[in-house]
Amino acid sequence: MTIVGGLMYTNPWFTSILVTSMVPSPRKSLGALVEWFLQVRLKPVRKQPSPMPKGYSKLIFPQLFGQKRGRGKVVFVDLLSVLIEPIDVDARRKSFVGRVPDQLGNLSALLYLDLSYDGDDFSGNLFIENPEWISRLASLRRLNLNSVDFRSASNWLRALNALPHVREVELSSCYLGTLPRSLPHVNFTSLTRLDLGNNDFNSGIPDWLLNVTSLQYLYLAYNSLSVFLPAIAKLTSLRALDLSGNLFHRGFIPRALSDLCKLQSLQLSDTSINDSLVNLEVAFSGCLGFSLEELDLGSTRLGGSMRADWLGNMKNLKYLDLSENSLHGSVPDSLVNLSLLQYLDLSYNNLNGSIPEGLGQLKSLVYLFLSGNSVNLSEVHLANLSSLKYLDISFITSFLMESHDWTPPFQLISLGMAFCQVAPRPHFPVWLQTQKDLYYLDLRNAGIKETIPNWLPSSLGLLLLSNNEITGEVPQYLPNLIAMELSNNSFSGRLPPGISNTMPNLRLLDLSRNNLSGTVPLSICRIKYLEILGLFQNNLSGELPSCWKSSSLLQVLDASNNKLQGGIPDSLCNLQRLQSLHLSHNSLSGQVPFCLRRCTSLITLDLEHNKLIGSIPDWSKESLLKLKALSLSSNAFNGSIPQFSHLPSLQILDLSNNNLSGTIPRSFGNFRAMELSFHPDYNSDDEFWDDHMMLFMKGREYYGTDKSMTVFLVSENDASGEAIYNE
What we know:
The chain is mostly beta strands. The chain has 6 helices and 46 strands. Helix 2 (156-160) links the parallel strand 9 and strand 10 (168-170). The chain starts with a strand and ends in a 14-residue tail after the last strand. It is found in: Cell membrane. Pfam families: LRR_1, LRR_8. Keywords: Cell membrane, Glycoprotein, Leucine-rich repeat, Membrane, Repeat, Signal, Transmembrane, Transmembrane helix.
């Protein structure tokens, strides 16, 4: 669908879409971006990773230097010294780039090979075309190729099957494609550890796997496996089994695992068990219930009552995750029997009532997550949790502080109390001043009505206080902060003038929707690692500082709805990583810098409701290739409308309420962004497209950006013509 000047023109490809998806909704501020940043980029601690098996040490070859052992055989090797053909090194990610050379197969005495990439995006820079060279590593014991690209390779399983002595194989996130159903002969009978996770096989568990009876650690998570194989119980040596994130359309049968008497870790999160918790007793009442130390049943569509007393019989359990299910009722007293428990996650169920006071006797508990339930909590429940480090009670009914001078027995690293009303009065819990190691503090929507106390620990790295009624000035005494989210409060005064010195490590700073005044200080530009800056809807005045450098990491800048004046500084053009720029609803004047074409990462550019003049820049097609939303409305632009069809990703264009003249370019009918967004091969990985943009059409305000529409607004100008589609 394309909308021009408030009139609707429907693309024949998408007549079924129409405007039904375009409904008014509350305006988003930086909320979606902040949430993405906190969850994806900063990754606050939530789940404890499964421990590595004892004796397993990761050996990364670029750090080794030709060590020898025994009769002069090279068992550890400096990878750079054996490369016949060059491999580039990506200095930014400190990883190798290019094709893994087949000559590595000549190292027949090699014991350990690790070419894995440990980045957050699950994709490295190395790829393998022909895995045959792996089969020549006859002495290999451990192979780690996690995130090495196998898309051009075939017969990878046959190559592995030629390694009779290999004990550990890790091939997660390798784009392996298919998981062969059978093997003529299983040769790797020494294999104890196999990780094939995150390869999206979209098949079932293969039969040949059942013949590798030496397996102790098996990881098949997130592979779209459709059929569960009950015969997996034949792998009686298993100590760790991870089947998380698979489909199992034909049903998952937990009772098939009941005879795995050596199993210590069972990960089933994000699978569809689709049963009641009580009915799982048959699987965990036997030897499995005694051997398990880790049990993850989070997001498995479990329902029914939480009153499953069999849980209390798993005396060796150290890790229990039942989060994000539909369990109801109260937390059972039987959990008090799990004296070794270190990790307990019951968050986001339908639990209610009071927590058993005996929970406070679990002295080994390090992680406790109860968020998203209608439960009541007080310091009594935490009285003896001396090992507690991570506590999340966000979105619970209340946290009652019966004693004003309570001193907890623990030292927290992370505390989540968002949407949790602190009773009996809305204030910063005084006991927080005893927490000298606190790194993560989330008190969003907690009803706090006071100033930020000066005793908050200097150890804080993430401070989230949005949507309260906090007054006073923005704090500037927390030197270790990397994220400060203070939006939608009543802060006043000026921005800290020396913020780059007092909080030099900030990556996220959101002060939107407050009462801040004065100018934007030059020191903002000097915060070396800043990625998101939110100053939306304050009373800031003066000019934007002209101090931005190309070394800046800034990706989002929102200073809209202020009283800023002067021109748009040319130094903004240096921000090569900038994805979202919002300067709307100010009093900015002058022309739009043509050099913004250098901001090649831009996705959203919003300059509406200012006093900008001159012609609209005709950015060439080689520049803003990612731009999806451009709003220049309600300014004083003149001249003709440029050929915006050179911007291939553009979906929203608002030029309304200017002094533009001439005709609407006929090429407006050639926009392809909407068609691409629906093409099955089109994959947009732009991280900030969940952005906000306000549109006025026919007297109604519409908010948000919708991937199912293309909008062009040119009303209230002197332009004429209509959009034409090339069919």
